[in-house]
Write a structure and sequence with these properties.
With about 220 residues, the chain is an alpha/beta fold. It has helices at about 15-30, 55-65, 75-80, 85-95, 105-110, 120-125, 140-150, 155-160, 180-185, 200-205; strands at about 5-10, 35-40, 70, 100-105, 125-130, 150-155, 165-170. Helix content is about 40%, strand content about 15%. The chain binds adenosine-5'-triphosphate. Adenosine-5'-triphosphate (ATP) binds near residues 10, 13, 105, 109 and 175.
Length: about 220
Amino acid sequence: MMRPIGLFGGTFDPVHCGHLRTAFELLTELQLAEVRFLPTGSPPHRDQMYASPELRLQMVRAAVTDQPGFVVDDREMRRSGVSYSVDTLADLRREYPQRSLCLLLGMDAFLGLPNWHRWRDLLTLAHIVVAHRPGWRVPTTGPLGEVMVDHGTGTIRELHERPAGRIYVRAVTQLEISSTELRTLIVGGGDPRYLVPDAVRRIILDTRCYASAHGANLSP
Ligand code: ATP
């Protein structure tokens, strides 16, 4: 049995240490073969992106380069039009007909799942792994409560033995970092050091992709 592939989608505008630490803990603790970062092309849930798609991709590539098992998949960027996760998963399922695929989501993304295009179909294509804060409660009512009853599992073994269909919730170290807050910090002249990898910080400083015209005045 081949180990599962973890799929971590996001706008990554920019990618930050909250994303990377979560992906790292899930990679090692769930014994995934790899975590594949999938930067969104045109996200259905967001009106605006700030850095160009090329720069977001460049930052994700720079962020994962020295971690074995972290890979970047730019298929959503190469596709024209809106990126729906269900289409991406269907694509990957065609490539890996038998393989366990695990869609990795933060709890905030999971709670918004019922707004996603054809969200119930996601579980026919992949497992869902929810990274949550210790102490946070998984929904017990509403549509998510219902799918938890039908699809929830407490064992990693099921993620390895079946290709799709389970929801597994895992506590990970929480780093209270968001891309939105990072952009605000940078526009205000703040330094993102230690919130993003050094290589990502370098790209942000060199390209001034988030800084206002007279924005950050940061040391190299
Ligand atoms: P924004 O502030 O622009 O919404 P974000 O920081 O939430 O961005 P996204 O690219 O939208 O980043 O998120 C991609 C995925 O990463 C989602 O599944 C989200 O739940 C998860 N995620 C975002 N921030 C964190 C964090 N600090 N720790 C763990 N997971 C996170």
